[in-house]
Amino acid sequence: MPVVNFNDKMFVKAGAVGFPQEELLEEIIHDGKKVKKQAQLTVIHHKSGVQCRLALNEFTVDKDGTLTQTGHIPLNEEATDKLFKYLLSKDKFSEIAHTTFYTVVESIAPLDKQAIEQLANLIRRAVRNKQIVNVLPSDVVTNFSAVVHQIRYKKAITELETMLGAKHNEKEYESWFLENHWIFGTEYLQTEDVKIGWRTSGDIILTSVDGYQDIVELKLPTEEVLLRDDSHDNWYPSAGLSKAISQATKYIQESEDTRTIIESKEGVPFLKPRAKIVIGRSLSWTNNDGDKRLDCLRKLNAQLHNIQIMTYDHLLKCARMMVHYYEGEGSTI
């Protein structure tokens, strides 16, 4: 291979004077310390038009800076034309890369682990970019969204079951209920973070579909709910439950008394709020063999005005029934 000097710019004219005429244009496309690459474009002017030919040359750089040609790839006019068209399409490829991020998977064989992970990444990216409809039809998206909620609900139920089997404080239970207020039913849209004088740790404010607020008073699942009075053969509210009822009654009254101020400062219209008290466990309640705690709680709830008492097990059962219902499994669990 010949030794060349890139500083020599070459202009070549061949043939008779006038036509054909060739111009050689050179461009260094890689300027490394040890290797340099050069593009040579030969433009040939004919009476009938212009032809272009491209050559790619590679050079090694010796210690003294001498360049030695080590490679030469010539492209004829057709190959050069195809390469130009390919390079001109670069912007189109860039546009596709930014807007089209889905793939088509068609196979009758079960998906392997890698394919499932690729599909999961695809869905995650589509959701993150709010372009899920570009991947799945709208009706599938609706069903897919329902599946996602079902998965989230099942995971939340498992989390609550795990929490009930260990020791947690009211603040930890409050965090769980704030993340999963759906467990109180579809009549509630969201929780509210409002600053109210009577509000303490464990109090959750829920906004219903009609735009008004209700109060949730959380007590620990380890609290007793009802106590047995053998002398009168009945059950009565424990000290913890009695205190919670008193607090809920106070909250309802105070929110009514300061409703105008709360709505003005916090933007939430407390009007005739209802209170829910979540306290204790009821998994062992049977209403058999003299155990009338279910009956007692039912009667107690009927006598309380705008206050509902429910246990953690009651909420868990409601959550499981909700999941089973939307899975088409009926109301039994």
Q: Which characteristics define this entry?
A:
alpha+beta; 2 domains; five-stranded antiparallel β-sheet; Nuclear Transport Factor 2, Chain: A; five-stranded mixed β-sheet; 333 residues; 9 helices; elongated; 12 strands
General description of the model:
This protein is an alpha+beta fold and 333 residues long. Helix content is 38%, strand content 24%. The chain is built from 9 helices and 12 strands. It has a 5-stranded antiparallel β-sheet with strand order 1-5-4-3-2. A hairpin with a 5-residue loop joins strand 4 and strand 5. The longest helix has 27 residues.
Discrete helix count: 9
Ends distance: 83 Å
Largest β sheet strand count, sense and barrel closure: 5 strands, antiparallel
Rg computed from alpha carbons, rounded to a whole number of angstroms:
38 Å
Strand order in the largest sheet: 1-5-4-3-2
Strand content: 15-25%
Tell me the quaternary state: single chain
Helical content class: 25-40%
Classify the secondary structure makeup into a structural class.
Answer: alpha+beta
Looking at the structure, what is the overall shape? Answer: elongated
**How many structural domains?**
2
Order of helices and strands: EEEEEHHHHHEEEEEHHEHEH
The tally of strands reads: 12
- Uncertain spans: 7-19, 96-105
Mean pLDDT metric: 80
